[in-house]
């Protein structure tokens, strides 16, 4: 089914526009909430993904978080400079870079669950539980997950 045509397409009414707008709101609010931890919302995603052992290389992080490898490298540089992660070459394949969290990185990651839910709950305060469940389902469908 074609939902958009040249005759009915209106930028501010498009799904893409609304998704970007919603993302930008969450990023701005999450960044402000994470300021005391000295990390951004994108860095939060990296730290939580590493902490939950969902990834251990920059490539895996890029795939899971949907971040291109160039940006991932720059973000890992910042996290490494802050002493939150360390990179090392794989002993079996020198082309592979492995990531590990430092004690400081673990400490920061462990504080995120005290902060992030409040940001999301504030944005979802007018949604019912069923609506949140449906929104998550629709977003997964949209993303092809």
In this structure, how is the largest beta sheet organized? 2 strands, antiparallel
Shape: globular
CATH architecture of the largest domain: Orthogonal Bundle
Summarize the helix and strand pattern as letters: HHHHEEHHH
Radius of gyration: 18 Å
CATH secondary-structure class of the largest domain = Mainly Alpha
**Count of individual domains:** 2
CATH topology of the largest domain: Arc Repressor Mutant, subunit A
Task: Write the CATH homologous superfamily of the largest domain.
Answer: Winged helix-like DNA-binding domain superfamily/Winged helix DNA-binding domain
Number of strands: 2
Distance between the termini: 20 Å
Helical content band: 55-70%
The low-confidence runs, each spanning 5 or more residues with pLDDT under 50, are none
Helix tally equals 7
Q: Roughly what fraction of the amino acids lie in strands?
A: 5-15%
Order of strands in the sheet with most strands: 1-2
- What class would the helix/strand composition place it in? mainly alpha
Q: For the residues shown, what is the average pLDDT?
A: 95
Protein name: MarR family transcriptional regulator
InterPro entries: HTH_MarR-typ, WH-like_DNA-bd_sf, WH_DNA-bd_sf
Keywords: DNA-binding, Transcription, Transcription regulation
Features:
145 residues, mainly alpha, Arc Repressor Mutant, subunit A, 2 domains, two-stranded antiparallel sheet, WH-like_DNA-bd_sf, WH_DNA-bd_sf, transcription regulation, transcription
Descriptive account of the structure:
- The protein is globular and about 55 Å long.
- Helix 1 (15-33) crosses helix 6, helix 2 crosses helix 5 (103-111) and helix 3 packs across helix 4.
- The protein has two domains: 15-34 and 115-145, no CATH class; 37-111, Arc Repressor Mutant, subunit A (Orthogonal Bundle), CATH 1.10.10.
- The protein starts with 14 loop residues before the first helix and ends with a helix.
- With 145 residues, the protein is mostly helical.
- The longest helix is centred in the N-terminal third of the chain and has 19 residues, at 15-33.
- The chain contains seven helices and two strands.
- The model has no long low-confidence stretch (mean pLDDT 95).
- The chain has a two-stranded antiparallel sheet with strand order 1-2.
- The protein has helices at residues 15-33, 41-51, 58-65, 69-81, 103-111, 116-123, 129-143, and strands spanning 85-89, 97-101.
- 57% of the residues lie in helices and 7% in strands.
């Amino acid at each position: 089914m074609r939902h958009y045509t040249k005759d009915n397409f209106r930028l501010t009414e498009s799904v893409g526009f609304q998704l970007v707008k919603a993302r930008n709101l969450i990023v701005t609010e999450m960044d402000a909430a994470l300021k005391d931890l000295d990390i951004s919302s994108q860095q939060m995603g990296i730290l939580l993904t590493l902490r939950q052992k969902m990834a251990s290389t920059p490539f895996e992080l890029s795939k899971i978080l949907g971040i291109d490898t160039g940006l991932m490298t720059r973000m890992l540089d910042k996290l490494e400079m802050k002493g939150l992660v360390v990179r090392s070459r794989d002993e079996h394949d020198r082309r592979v870079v492995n990531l590990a969290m430092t004690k400081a990185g673990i400490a920061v990651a462990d504080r995120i669950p005290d902060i992030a839910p409040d940001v999301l709950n504030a944005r979802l305060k007018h949604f019912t539980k069923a609506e949140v469940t449906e929104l998550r389902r629709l977003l997964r469908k949209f993303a092809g997950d």
